[in-house]
Design goal:
Length: about 280
């Protein structure tokens, strides 16, 4: 199978030398796990995330045809006559995080108290700030859970900041002020965030889920992910930066996300957690 760089070389036409787009990038800022990740595409191949060699979205992939990679395409204007609901639907279907952010911002202008618009912006995080030359996982909202998977890879100040962002982010507080069921909204939001982290950073990490010819065995996921899932839950429940009720709420949300992702096959995870922790998650 050809790499992006290989495909690009083949499609170049002309008499001149083939440009080398196979310059490799080092591990992105914000991920100090030491994982060796090769970014074989140039910064022009950075319009969105795709499955990479270790994490589920680490590659920075172009969604256009190969010839479009080298031509700057004019972005379509925003549909100024669309209402907030229409813009929200367009944003949900939009692959480009920059345009998605623009659509959501326009929706917020039209409906500043629409909780669904604020929730979409909350989950979007800072994806529109992604940089193909310097990939940084911190623009992904669910990456906040990384401080519980690998606290040893973060400075104490960063652990505090990321842990508190799960509960104190201004956009989240705005959402909570717009709903009569703040506790339910918060629990659902944290579970959705946890599910995103599991999908991208646990199941997408070949250190946890070994692959054969690029495919992982679905039946082994519950065993492969039991230890990292258990570590995250344990670290949440011991976090010095969360109140006790926040610890329990977050741990329960993460466990529910694990249960959903594993289709209920949590026996290996439950064995890792033990009866005492399981009872606190009930």
């Amino acid at each position: 199978m050809l790499s992006y760089a290989g495909i690009i070389r083949i499609r170049f036409k002309g008499s001149g030398p083939t440009p080398d787009l196979s310059r490799k990038f080092s591990t992105p800022a914000g991920d100090k796990t030491g994982t060796k990740i090769s970014y074989e595409a140039s910064a022009v191949l950075s319009s969105a995330f795709s499955r990479g060699p270790n994490y589920g979205i680490i590659g920075w992939k172009s969604l256009g045809r190969s010839e479009e990679v080298f031509t700057k395409k004019k972005a379509p204007g925003l549909p100024m006559d669309a209402d907030a609901a229409t813009l929200l639907g367009l944003a949900k279907a939009e692959a480009d995080p920059v345009r998605r952010f623009q659509l959501l911002n326009r929706a917020e202008e039209l409906a500043p108290k629409d909780i669904m618009v604020h929730r979409a912006l909350l989950m979007h995080g800072r994806l529109h700030e992604r940089d193909g030359r310097n990939p940084d996982y911190r623009v992904i909202k669910s990456y906040l859970f990384h401080v519980f998977e690998h606290p040893e890879k973060h400075e104490e100040k960063e652990i505090l900041s990321m842990a508190r962002e799960l509960f104190d982010h201004e956009r989240l507080l705005t959402c909570l002020s717009f709903t009569s069921n703040a506790e339910g909204f918060l629990a659902d939001y944290l579970e959705e965030l946890a599910a995103d982290y599991i999908r991208l950073f646990l199941a997408g990490d070949t250190r946890h889920v070994p692959t054969l010819f690029g495919f992982s065995r679905r039946t082994s996921l519950s065993k492969c992910l039991a230890v990292p899932m258990s570590d995250i839950i344990g670290n949440i429940l011991q976090s010095a930066y969360l109140k006790q009720e926040e610890q329990v709420l977050l741990a329960r949300a993460f466990y529910r996300a694990c249960h959903r992702f594993l289709s209920g096959e949590t026996e290996p995870l439950d064995a890792q957690l033990g009866p005492q922790i399981l009872s606190s998650l009930a």
